[in-house]
Amino acid sequence: MIDARKIEKLRKIVGKENVLESVEQMVAYSYDATNIWSHLPDVVVFPTKTEEISEILKFANENGIPVTPRGGGTNVSGGSIPIKGGIILCTTKMGRIIEISKTNLNATVEPGVVLQDFQEALAMEGLFFPPDPQSFAGCTMGGVIAENSGGPSCLKYGVAKQYVLGLEVVLADGRVMKLGGLTPKNRTGYELIMLFTGSEGTLGVISKITLRLLPAPRASKTIVAVFSDVAVAGETVTAIIASSVLPSKVEFLDSWTFEKLRGLLPDYVLDISQLVLLIQVDGLPQTVDAETQQILDICKQWAREVRVAADADEAEKYWQARGAHFSDIHSRAHTIVNEDVSVPRDKIADFIRLGRESAKRHDVPISFAGHVGDGNFHPAVLTDSRDKEHYQRALKCVDEIIDIALNLGGVLSGEHGIGLEKQRFLKKAMDPLAIETMKKIKDILDPNHILNPGKIWEESKE
Ligand SMILES: Cc1cc2nc3c(=O)[nH]c(=O)nc-3n(C[C@H](O)[C@H](O)[C@H](O)COP(=O)(O)OP(=O)(O)OC[C@H]3O[C@@H](n4cnc5c(N)ncnc54)[C@H](O)[C@@H]3O)c2cc1C
């Protein structure tokens, strides 16, 4: 517990209007988008500038108080849950877009800027920041960088780390470190920007971000392809990627999921037997037309039904249905165990088949959706943690799914990070020497382990 004197000190740093401490308010900051974990913080503070973050961290470090950085709280790995109590340092009052430069194709933002607001501001200038986690309406730029987020568009355009040119980071002892700059090229020293990108709030608090931008694509088309056989759909994805056309998005929904989302869809898609691929091509109009035709030709060889969305409205409906998947799934069971494995693209069909067999063996409902063009899946097992026997079966199925992905040459997390959710798998997913090196880096940057303690590494087994 943080005593009243310490909370008074925090009020002095950020102003009393920027400190929350009632139990009701603490409950609101005790969870994130996972529904398995929660823990109350002692206090929530909202800094409005870098100097305040610096003072908060200096004070916390001197007094051994845990600090959990938080943006929108939309992560799905338990990353912003204050599992050791202490301070939630929430950046949502640092929401300025400092600069958008068309000439330099870059932008500088504070960490609390909401991704959708940023994307809308860029669109007005004809610019584009591709990473598009489907939480875009609520997640912040600080969270996107701290999680190294991805999303559907990453197939063609890459994940957040490919766009970070510069960072300002407040270290655990309050010192402010500036990394990188405004230029797309910079080979000065070690790539420390990469170290902080994806560090899940465990190495420092990101207080300013400079991002590389692209000109917005001029045109796009959406293709919907329905398959009756998982393996065939997987092979179709492999064939599309190998065909020298690179779609901007290739997303996958299984029939279970699509059926549940049917109410959101236009009437055209009627025959949903096994699974659906949603494909988007973007670029110059004439290129988009030619590439759409090429993808149609490939899909027609194997799909039961293929359709190009007639206009932007129809396309938007499909993408909204895809975007609604996560919330929909969470409304269908008390507990969802949602994974984030990524497998090589030529193993997509094997992964789905083996995953389904595992769910059948353990007799648990499973939904497969994900960024299939990247081989990145979010298999979600529906269970109820209050029913111990069912929950244990669900966890066994999840364990098997992780093993299946790793055995196929895949990775534990494609884009959601480790947080609390995936700690128990880390040892089998990473080289022990890599884990040891990472822990040493943590010790150097945060020797008192005040920053997001309890995350990434399973402490009891250290
Ligand atoms: C419906 C839904 C769909 C999603 N879809 C995708 C998807 O398609 N692709 C994808 O990659 N992810 C997806 N996500 C997860 C995604 O990682 C997060 O939504 C997002 O990146 C987190 O941003 P946030 O502001 O909410 O951060 P939070 O959840 O608040 O924090 C996330 C982590 O970052 C740390 N952090 C936050 N701000 C800072 C900062 N300023 N400095 C240092 N550390 C900080 C926190 O401590 C925590 O560890 C989805 C989530 C949801 C709920």
Defining key terms:
462 residues, alpha+beta, Uridine Diphospho-n-acetylenolpyruvylglucosamine Reductase, domain 3, Alpha-Beta Plaits, five-stranded antiparallel β-sheet, 16 helices, binds flavin-adenine dinucleotide
Structure characterization notes:
With 462 residues, the chain is an alpha+beta fold. The chain has 3 domains: 216 residues, Uridine Diphospho-n-acetylenolpyruvylglucosamine Reductase, domain 3 (2-Layer Sandwich), CATH 3.30.465; 99 residues, Alpha-Beta Plaits; 93 residues, Alpha-Beta Plaits (2-Layer Sandwich). It is 36% helix and 19% strand. The protein contains 16 helices and 20 strands. The strands form 5 sheets. A 6-stranded antiparallel β-sheet has the order 15-12-14-13-18-19. It has a 5-stranded antiparallel β-sheet with strand order 5-6-10-8-9. Strands 1-2-4-3 form a 4-stranded mixed β-sheet. Helix 8 packs antiparallel against helix 10, helix 8 packs antiparallel against helix 13 and helix 13 runs antiparallel to helix 14. The longest helix has 20 residues. The site of flavin-adenine dinucleotide has 36 residues, from strand 3, helix 5 and strand 10.
Q: Work out the count of structural domains.
A: 3
Average the pLDDT over all residues and give the rounded result.
93
**Which hetero compounds are present in the coordinates?**
flavin-adenine dinucleotide
Share of β-strand residues: 15-25%
Largest sheet, in brief, is: 6 strands, antiparallel
Query: Which CATH class of the largest domain applies here?
Result: Alpha Beta
SSE class: alpha+beta
Please give the alpha-carbon distance between the first and last residues. 25 Å
Shape label: globular
